[in-house]
Predict the structure.
Amino acid sequence: MRPIFAALLAVASGAISPAPIAAQTYWQPLGQLETAPGEHIGPLTVSPGGDLVVGSLWSPEGGFRARVWSLRDGLAMATLDGVFPSLLPIRFAQPANTPGLISAQVYAHSRRHLRSWTLSGAAPVLELAFEEDFLADDVLYDPFRQTFIVAGTFGPLWVYGQSGAQIATIETDAMRPHGAMTLSQDGSELVVDSSGFTLTYQMSGAPHHCTDGSCAEAYAQLPGSYGPYEALLAVDPLRQRLASLPPIDAERLHLGGGNFHPVATPTVRLWEALEGWNSDTAPMLTLEGFAAPLRHGAFSADGARLLTLDESNNLAVWNAETGAQTMTAQGIIAAQFIPGGKTIVVHTADASSAILDISGGDLLQPLPPPSENTVIAPDGQTLITYSAGRAGPARVWRRR
């Protein structure tokens, strides 16, 4: 029995029968990303149009660098020099409503610096040093306004133009650290994962194409809301909803009120209408029945489903409208929805991967190890399996 079968035998729909699976191939291998022998691949990112992929690399001979590949054939298109001495994520900065890859760049950040490169490679075209006492936790590119938004350990969110000029700040609770940011697909809402609560800003008042400090007042006056006062689990960029984790505190259930609503067992709450959130707002759904505290969650691209992973490596997929559970599986360390279909890619501790049907958990196709990570094109037609931080193949797959 292959390792992936052993890890997935607890799929809720019942025992997996390998007989019919052998005759099904839902994803066709196209090849591998072009790398040199011994190169370790860092986190990969696919361009918004699904044409390119970028990632950091390390090798004993060449040190740290980054590369841009074509997803069509896996061939290297450009090498980026001057990257940070770590396998950090590199992301695309592509303005919205711009055909093809015109004006597109890629960028990466450390705690103290932001750098960007053109797709032709070579040295950075932007080298931005943050304030001396400021440590960045996340940098988000806003494709509608062509700006970088920086969240850090304290203070406001900082807004920079593509040239590196500071053009504005977004006011926050200055005494709390702010982490991962998510921009809605239409650019109208910004969600910030803060320490113990969520910040939501309505971005319609932020002017497009800001290049100087003239937009400072508009950003400073963006309407925002605090809450829910719970750990953020997942954000739905399409339907502008989120999932949160209320505090587990059975001994203080009787003290619940205001912004504090503890639970006795691991629970997920789903929220909508974030712009009007207050302490009296009720969640749209409450999900229960988890065997252990949650460590990861994600919405599907259409917002119709939510996946959860707990600390005991139990996976569950939920209908985000009704709260019904559609599948479960055990022994899963990572999982990701595949856009444009009803499938999910999962990874197990033995570096095996597989494609599952989310309606019942049936195993559709095993993928060969090593493959501890997956990156998927936005249209759901291409995916890459690889093991971040290790030397080895980055295999490219195309949906049949």
